Amino acid sequence: MASGSHREHVPVLVGVGRITQHKGSVSIDKARSPLEMMYDACKLALEDLYVEDTGKVLESVDSVATVNMQLELRVLSALREQARLSGSKTQILGYDHVYTNPPRTLAKSLGVPTSGLQEYISDDQSGNSPQMLVNEMCERIAQKKIKTAIISGCEALATFSEALKQGYTLPCLGETSVPNATGERIIVKGSKVLQWGDDPGDSPEILGHLHDEIPMNIDEVRSGLASAPACYALIDQACRQKSSYKDLSSHMKQVGEMMEGFTQVAAAQPEHSWFPIKRTAHEIVTLSEQNRMVAYPYPKFCNAVMDVDQAAALIIMSEAEAAKFKIPKHRWTYLHGCSDTYEYPVHISKRRNLDRNFAMQVAAKQALDSAQVTMKDITLFDIYSCFPVAVSMACKEMEIPTRDGTRLTLTGGLPYHGGPGNNYSMHAIAAMVQSLRQNRGEYGMVTANGGFLSKHSVGIYSCVPYKESKWKRVNPELYQLKLNEWAQKNNHQDIAKLNSEGSVGVIDTWTVVYNKHKGENIPKMATILGTVLAVEDSNKNDNAGKRFVAMCTDPSEISKLISADGKDSNGEAMKCVVTRNKKHRNTFRLYDKAHL
Fold first, then answer.
1. Within a 10 A sphere around the Cβ of 519, how many other Cβ atoms?
2. Among 403, 410, 389, 151, which residue's Cα sits nearest to residue 273?
3. For strand 309-318 and strand 148-156, is the pairing parallel, antiparallel, or unpaired?
4. What is the pLDDT of residue 1?
5. Is the pLDDT of residue 2 over 50?
6. d(CA 491, CA 351)
7. What letter would DSSP give residue 492?
8. I need a labelling partner for 538 at 20 to 30 A (CA). Which of 214, 289, 349, 420 fits?
């Protein structure tokens, strides 16, 4: 880049802000709403520009993008329950959202002109959304479709959950129940109303639609795999069986040692962290009154905490705009490379290799290649950490040369910093920008994951100026098509068609979800993925070699599964008999030839 020249086609991140409204810091009637917290985060990002007149910057903003809120899913679930209780046979496919156009509402509150404003919101509910939106906005700046973008997101689920307990409701809710982060339902009677919501007109454009498949199929849902803790625990168990630490104690020791570093980073940032508490590896993986089992083998301290009040914001503009507003160059941070992929097959029951994630591999390679750097050049990381297996899988597939938790996060990660719905990675990006300003000349990687290790967005950042005259983003469809073609041959598993007669199968991986009942934490449901076996003296072999997903709620069967750690007397994976019952659920019992 020639001295004194500033490129219109090259985007820079120039302002970041993040805020945490700590639990109990304010009463419900004084707590900030999600849009108010976004406003606060945006004001911090504007201060971060270090310019005298932020009003002129706001006048130049021509695009506002926000991350879809998990709040909307909670409310939708409540409305469906309302319909069920009322006997309504009409399935609720959509509803009037709590916030119908967050980008426009946010823009108005900030004083951004809304005439001609480009308004965006991320597609569905996915943790890759913040990095994906950065990738999208940078591309629009490079194509000169926009000059300045504000990206923001928030969850205020801690306030929302506490408000329900105190008798508050939302304008769109009557008497019903709402699920909390663990799936337990809170009864809502609603004598008081939270004044949350907007109605500014129109709807924002949806960005980030990668595929048309729903995140899970009906058999997965019926077998308990609509739950993130269950899905990630199931994947963790599959990884354990393929690792050198197959016994549970050795495996969990490794988990605890890695996550201990995350708690150290969170503890050093009490302003931002939901749980700024340094914990030992032993404490993280050992069951206690405060650390109950959630989904085997993960206790609470290994799980993302979603019910938090946290918001973040980013300001991105072209180099030319940054120079025009005299934003100091030492505050400019460049997105050197990026990628957006999804794992194929989308449904985890159809993934042949559950201990692998090939989309992660492709995402890292594409982002590094675009940035014209290698993994050896990356010194700063924030790896998406909803559950430990998300971190260890990323380290394996992306060939990240460390398992030291203090080096894998800049915030403390989702279980300790807090995992505000789909918006955690915006906090990671903000932290990355701040860290790179203190480590000029270095490169950092942010990974963002959505679904069940399903969607992946990666960003490579640095204060080192972008090398080319025009910023470029490779169309994700190009490398996704190649990945899908390869995965269809090498990672796709056919699904068995089960019936009431029963088939014998081997358990490939399993988990048990626990639930609180009358003050006691008890096993609620076991979920397995398995492979149908060809059995002698049987003509029921059409399904042999095919995958199945099944569940069991029998306490004695679950107890046997846990006590044997899924192994038979020979140390091999347990076998089971799986049938499809009258409610169209796949159920299993541990193998007993006498029952065939």
1. 5
2. 410
3. antiparallel
4. 46
5. no
6. 6
7. B
8. 349
Cβ atoms of 297 and 232 closer than 8 Å: no
Helix (H/G/I), strand (E/B), else coil: 53: coil
Both tokens of residue 429? 């990006």
Q: Pick from 155, 136, 129: which is nearest to 446 by CA?
A: 129
CA distance 429 to 441: 17
Enter the tokens of residue 219.
């058999």
Q: Which two tokens stand for residue 265?
A: 């980073």
Q: 503-533: per-residue pLDDT in tens?
A: 999 999 999 999 988 889 999 999 999 999 9
Q: Closest Cα partner for 300 from 309, 308, 311, 289? A: 289
- Give per-residue pLDDT as tens, 239-268: 999 987 789 999 999 999 999 999 999 999
> Taking a C-beta distance cutoff of 8 angstroms, is the pair 240, 253 a contact?
no
Q: What phi and psi, each to the nearest 5 degrees, are found at residue 433?
A: -60, -45
Long-range contacts of 52-55 (CB under 8 A, 24+ apart): 55/111
Preceding peptide of 34 cis, ω within 30°: no
Distance CA 503, CA 547 (A): 11
Q: Say which amino acid occupies 423.
A: N
User: Rounded to an integer, what distance in angstroms lies between the CA atom of residue 96 and that of residue 102?
Assistant: 13
Query: In the chain, how many H helices and how many E strands?
Result: 17, 21
Cα–Cα distance measured from residue 386 to residue 231, given in angstroms and rounded to the nearest whole number = 12
At residue 92, does pLDDT exceed 80? no
Which amino acid type is present at position 594? A
Banded pLDDT at 91 (limits 50, 70, 90):
very low
* Measured torsion, CA atoms of residues 90, 223, 419, 423, in degrees rounded to the nearest 10: -50
pLDDT band at 176 (very low <50, low <70, confident <90, very high): low
The pLDDT score that the predictor gives to residue 191 is: 76
Q: How many CB atoms lie within 10 A of CB 89?
A: 6
